[in-house]
Amino acid sequence: MALYLGLDSSTQSLSAIVLEVDGDRRRVAFESSMAFDETLPQYGTRHGVLPSADTTTAVSPPLMWVEALELMMERLKQSGLDLGQLRAISGSAQQHGSVYLNSQASQMLGALDPRRSLVEQIKPLLSRNESPIWMDSSTSTECREIEAAVGGNQALAQRTGSRAFERFTGAQIRKFSKRDPSAYAATDRIHLVSSFLASLLIGQHAPLDPGDGSGMNLMDLAARGWWTPAVTATAPDLASKLPPLAPAATVVGTLSRYWQERFGLPPAKVVAWSGDNPCSLVGVGLVREGRLAISLGTSDTVFGLMREPRVDATGTGHVFGAPTGDYMGLTCFKNGSLAREHVRDRFGLSWPTFSESLRRTPPGNGGRIMLPWLEPEITPTVLAPGIRRYGLDPGDADGNVRAVVESQQMAMALHSRWMNVTVDTIHATGGAAANRDILQVMSDVFGAVVYQLQVGNSAALGAALDALHGAAVADGAALSWDEAIEGFVEPIARSALRPDPARHAVYKELIEVYAACEAHALGRGADPASRLAEFAATLE
Ligand code: ADP
Ligand code: XUL
Q1: Which residues, including other chains, have CB under 8 Å from residue 401's CB and lie 6 or more apart?
Q2: Does residue 12 line the site of ligand 1, with CB under 6 A?
Q3: Distance CA 65, CA 140 (A)
Q4: pLDDT in tens, 100-156
Q5: What is the pTM of this model?
Q6: CA-CA distance, 284 to 287, in Å (whole number)?
Q7: Is the CB–ligand 2 distance for residue 520 below 6 Å?
Q8: Residue 296 C-alpha from the chain's centroid
Q9: Ligand closest to CA 336
């Protein structure tokens, strides 16, 4: 029976899913995950990121991702699966992060010695030891410089799908080229995490897919090629350092001799890797317009498929390429799971007791709001971190638990309005989608039915489905996306969480007050105290 492997290199972990497919008989044959901090403590990361005194800087060691890839292949080898049947591999990775390779890489990637570890052979190929990742917000200056050089943020957004964002790869590359010009000059190829890991598998530089390429502020979204004015504005000689772009379903190569000899794997096709959000779009089954997905992972993201790119005029969200060849709208929040964990830990709770708190507190929380900006926030842009509370006692455990969950859900509802989707159904994914009490608040805030999915790791599943779809297309089979995902991405009918009309009515009022709190905290609006008091009075 044919096997398809999907890998997901996320902020905190590497996961793998193997699908077994024999006509209509389809099942997940293997699932595994390794947390970087626990499995590879020698890299010194916390939640997958290197500790930094500067709250705006976020970098990770790329060699940690390399070593994790090798360990995961070892796990697969030990799994008892008939790996001779492995037809194709694809992958998903955290978006925006970049990996810098020197000129030896193009030759050495294809000449790896199967008797030696991958990590020791990749180390000399790096021209930069650290990779800036999506949590970095240290490049506001570079954003302003790029935006000015291309004729303003509107022009940049119209072409690339997003205004200049600090974590986007273009601004990160510019910062590196300014701070360390000699290391930048010694860089021959700049990969995203996705194309870097794909390159390791095929033994040569892999192209980028438009889904991940659109997270750089460098790609012409409609033409799906590099946009020269942005490339020129970003850094010297950048055009020669960027990988080519290739459509999402492209087979970019086959597993190199290294993997075949070291792990006994066949020369399986490697399908272009993509970003975790584009992969999740497929992994939650959103291959058509009209529904939204919410991922509650390290970041919280709201996203949905778009047939035509409708760029966000407010500058909040992004339009990326989708694996289906369409587009996707997305809004990203940095303070997702780690903010929820912060509240949980501060009051000595576990997830079950966190949920109990949610169940015993009323919707609307008596008009108490938290802006959970523990870390600098992406949506809305907040560079100086710090939790802001409105009417909320910092020592009140129940109040803070409900406030963090309600406020995050209201922020997602508010900042996804630009997508102009009538939300009646949400597919929930990511680690915290296991928590039905959080999902009930989501359902009540959005006034939508929320479903959990059969496979929790939608990014790894989406990557495995990319492998299945891309391999079929390469073999000349006319496999549609509807056919490719069938049987794997079904929302679980009995998992449906339905909105309560009375609770939804409360949130319809509160979300406007929440927006006023955000505006006030950002220095753009009046003190919302009287509005909060009025709202609280309506609850009595
Ligand atoms: P990544 O973005 O790294 O792929 P995941 O989607 O795997 O992250 O989500 C990991 C997060 O899920 C953890 O940081 C944890 O806070 C959260 N999580 C796991 N179980 C629960 C739960 N029962 N309730 C709330 N959050 C949870
Ligand atoms: C999306 C984003 C995050 C990362 C997390 O724009 O920055 O969701 O992809 O892995």
Answers
A1: 343, 344, 347, 349, 354, 357, 358, 361
A2: yes
A3: 27
A4: 999 999 999 999 999 999 999 999 999 999 999 999 999 999 999 999 999 999 999
A5: 0.96
A6: 9
A7: no
A8: 10
A9: 1
